[in-house]
Amino acid sequence: MNEAILSRREGAVQVLSMNNPSARNALTAETYTALPAALAKAERDPDVGAIVLTGAGGVFCAGGDLNRLAQRRAMTPTDRRAGVEVLHTMIRAIRDCSKPVIAAVEGAAAGAGLSIALACDLLVAARNASFSVAYVKVGLSPDAGATAFLSGCVSRQLLTELCLLGKPVTGERMHALGVANRLTEPEGALAEAIAMAQLLAAGPERAIARIKSLCRHAGENTLDAQLDLEADYMTESLGDDESAEGIGAFFGKRPADYAALRRGAAVQSS
């Protein structure tokens, strides 16, 4: 049986690929456990600065396996809910990873596959990629955070249209809507995502984690709550070796070497 998640390194970038190409990378029970485990491993590795998430075989992810979903009809509501929560735990693992996670989308990102892409911090899409929230076509309602993620980047009217009609949207339109950060020609999304990840991987790890947290909470916090969070993080950052390195590099007119700080921290903890 194929590994659910393929993992390889590109310098300081960990590339994770959902690996069920015969089913367009539809999610399996193995995916639900393997992806959080791979993210956690990359998060612990001091030599990894950023993560790229993609799909094998030219397709990102077709979402849930309808055969498995159909089998849940015979389950109790409690057991059906537990199955959904396993998926939601995986989504939270993507969102909560302290290191930047970039989605590289070729082919389809459908249903929960769309949610996986949007749970990432940044999104690179091929021009002809297809994004859809097609639950309604099989009598289901969205899960995996699809409505939460989309509501943060499109209007309520467009969100409702996407969910009620279930029609696919191209990577080109997602880029025009501001949902996709970068648009590439077909087969170019992974290379572009890796290039972005390499830039991030050279940055200050702890400052980036704080920035990720600020961006995550900005849409839900009141102004006062966000100001408090910014004050907390700025206080931490000013006392961090990363700011000493960054400010010192600025005045010394040299590139900051944050990788050396990560290596030093790893040696001290070992």
From TrEMBL:
Keyword presence, Lyase: yes
One Pfam family cited in the UniProt record for this chain: ECH_1
Entry-linked PROSITE patterns: ENOYL_COA_HYDRATASE (PS00166)
Keywords, comma-separated and alphabetical: Lyase
Gene Ontology biological process terms from the UniProt entry: fatty acid beta-oxidation
DNA repair recorded as keyword: no
UniProt-listed Gene3D superfamilies: 2-enoyl-CoA Hydratase, Chain A, domain 1, Lyase 2-enoyl-coa Hydratase, Chain A, domain 2
Entry's family note: Belongs to the enoyl-CoA hydratase/isomerase family.
NCBIfam families for this protein: oxepin_alt, PRK07511.1
Name of the protein described by the UniProt record: Enoyl-CoA hydratase
Record lineage: Bacteria, Pseudomonadati, Pseudomonadota, Betaproteobacteria, Burkholderiales
